[in-house]
Amino acid sequence: MSFEENAELDFLFAEAKLGIAVEEWLASDVGKYMKGRAEGELEDIKRKLIELPEWQSSTAKQLQDRAKMLQTMMSWLAQAIDNGHVSEMALQEAESGQ
After folding, report:
1. DSSP at 97
2. Angle at 85 between CA 17 and CA 88, to 5 degrees
3. Number of domains, the chain
4. How far is the C-alpha of 38 from the C-alpha of 20, rounded, in Å?
5. pLDDT of residue 3 exceeding 70
6. CA gap 21, 77 in Å, rounded
7. What stretch of H or E contains 91?
8. pLDDT in tens, 40-90
9. What's the pLDDT score for residue 6?
10. Is 28 left (phi over 0), alpha (psi -120 to 50) or beta?
11. What's the rounded Cα separation, in Å, for the pair 17 and 38?
């Protein structure tokens, strides 16, 4: 096996391991709490934006920035899980092809 193939397998293994760790963390009490807090805060931001008077555009911008940060964080977690699944499949294919 070449250096490049080993490096690719190492990368796939690391991504798969990260995806599993994120899934396990999200299933833990702390992960559930953090996800729930983020989702709750996003709902609160949506409500505040709907109720916010037009003239408070700076407050709206701050709320939008906070919502984007929370959505980005949740997206990173989902991507880590998705990438982990893809890497697991690639590792299984590589193993069955040997």
Report:
1. T
2. 65
3. 1
4. 21
5. no
6. 10
7. helix 57-96
8. 999 999 999 999 998 899 999 999 999 999 999 999 999 999 999 999 999
9. 83
10. beta
11. 24
Residue 92, both tokens: 């299984």
Map tokens 């003239």 to a residue: 55
Query: What does the chain come to in residues?
Result: 98
Rounded mean pLDDT of 7-14? 92
Residues with Cβ within 8 Å of residue 49, at least 6 apart in sequence: 60, 63, 64
Q: How does residue 96 score in pLDDT terms, banded at 50, 70 and 90? A: confident
Candidates 68, 13, 12; CA nearest to 41 is 68
Give residues with Cβ within 8 angstroms of 87, minimum separation 6: 11, 12, 13, 15, 16, 19
Structure-block tokens of residue 19? 């995806």
The parent domain of residue 57 ranges over 3-96
DSSP 88: H
- Could you tell me the end-to-end alpha-carbon distance of the chain, in angstroms, rounded to an integer? 10
Confidence category of residue 4, pLDDT binned at 50, 70, 90: confident
